[in-house]
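re the bet — no i am not wrong, look at it urself. input seq straight from the record:
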Amino acid sequence: MKPKRQAISRDVRIAVNTIKQSITMVKDNGMDLQMEEEESDDYYQITIQIPKQKAK
C-alpha cells in the first residue's frame, strides 16, 4: 500500500506548477503581474498582484 502523503505531494506540485504556468502565460500576453511564493511546513502561499487599469 502506497503512503497517501506521496499522492498528496504529487497533487500539490501539479497545482503549483499549473498556477505558475498560468501566470507565465498571462505575463507573456502583456499583463504586468507580480507573484510571490512562500512555502511553510503546512502550506504553499502564492500571492498574485494584478494592477487595476485606470479608466480613461
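see?? The first strand starts at residue 34 and ends at 39. told u. also The CA atoms of residues 38 and 45 lie 5 Å apart. so pay up
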